[in-house]
Design goal:
The chain is an alpha/beta fold and 316 residues long. Helices cover 43% and strands 21% of the residues. The strands form 3 sheets. The chain has a 6-stranded mixed sheet with strand order 7-8-6-11-12-13. The protein has a 5-stranded parallel sheet with strand order 2-1-3-4-5, with helices on both faces. The termini are far apart. The relative contact order is 0.09.
């Protein structure tokens, strides 16, 4: 019974099927639309639009022989793009030659199904490959988390920054970055044991993690004292509001420790930077600008935010 359904306890798997033959599209729709959530494209250009939209498909089904952009070319675009390289690809084609099969697997497909298609077989293949893909991505996600705060680590932060940089460059969107540092962290943690230190870091992380909650946004813990919030396609006003809110949130935690008999309250300083990815600028330019603004916020006494500008630093 379990083999006859995706699952009764989760949403349907999202399938993007690319084929220029309306008859094949209709057959798949009639046989499998009750088990999967289908989006159809009849050429590669449409497929690229749908493939990068959020929420993304769980799997691509691609015909090989299509005008303008064939299935091999489309497959290579999906497998080379960081935003879609994790999504499994099944070729559905009437071409049963060894050369085609070899080329398909060499450029990154996970399966190759020859037409005419048996819907029962295709359903099983879709289910299996999506489940394997999700398990693999879950393992990668665990490896990408900072162990103490369960937020993206520095290496995942760089991956997310590169991905969003490329997207914003493609669509001419601004990319905004906040570097957020706990003030005087060494003095705060010095008198504490490991459990107490972890409790403080987790409390701060919990105050931060839901600020980057739109598609394309992300939050990372990039070094012991510093967190990063990446805001894709964000107006400066939104970034400034996030910075103001976060400074207030951390202060409102009212976490205080005694250091040499003097109470120290946990506060945070934030540097804000924004760029349109273009020309000779790189994602590290944005990273460095946010860090420069953060240093300025700390020099101004901490517990505040500063925004980087090419000509000057704007402060609270």
């Amino acid at each position: 019974m379990m083999d006859q359904q995706t699952t009764s306890h989760q949403s349907k798997f999202k399938v993007l099927y690319i084929d220029d033959n309306p008859l094949d599209l209709q057959i798949i729709l009639n046989q499998l639309s009750d088990q999967f959530e289908f989006t159809f494209a009849n050429n590669g250009r449409e497929a690229l639009i749908y493939g990068f939209q959020q929420p993304q498909p769980d799997i691509f089904l691609i015909d090989i022989h299509m005008p303008s952009m064939n299935g091999f070319e489309l497959c290579e675009k999906f497998t080379k793009a960081p935003e879609t390289s994790h999504i499994p690809i099944i070729f559905l084609t009437g071409n049963n030659t060894l050369n085609c099969k070899t080329r398909a697997f060499n450029i990154g497909c996970v399966d190759y199904v020859v037409k005419p298609i048996d819907p029962r077989e295709l359903r099983l293949r879709i289910n299996n490959h999506v489940k394997i893909s999700r398990q693999s991505n879950a393992i990668k996600t665990l490896a990408a988390l900072e162990s103490e705060t369960k937020i993206n680590n520095y290496y995942k932060y760089l991956q997310e920054l590169q991905t969003e940089w490329n997207l914003c460059k493609r669509y001419d969107y601004p990319l905004t970055l906040l570097h957020c540092e706990i003030d005087n962290l060494q003095d705060i943690l010095a008198p504490l044991n490991a459990k107490q230190s972890s409790q403080i870091m987790l409390a701060v992380a919990n105050a931060i993690r839901d600020l980057g909650n739109r598609p394309g946004d992300s939050v990372a813990h990039i070094n012991p004292a510093t967190f990063a919030i990446l805001l894709s396609d964000s107006q400066i006003s939104h970034a400034v509001n996030c910075a103001k809110e976060l400074v207030a949130r951390i202060s409102a935690l009212q976490i205080k420790v005694l250091s040499e008999d003097l109470p120290i309250q946990v506060t945070m300083s934030i540097g804000v930077a924004s760029l349109y990815p273009e020309g000779n600028t790189t994602m590290m330019t944005l990273h460095d600008n946010a860090n420069t603004a953060l240093i300025e916020a700390k020099l101004n006494g901490g517990n505040n935010w500063c925004m980087y500008s090419v000509s000057h630093i704007l402060t609270t």
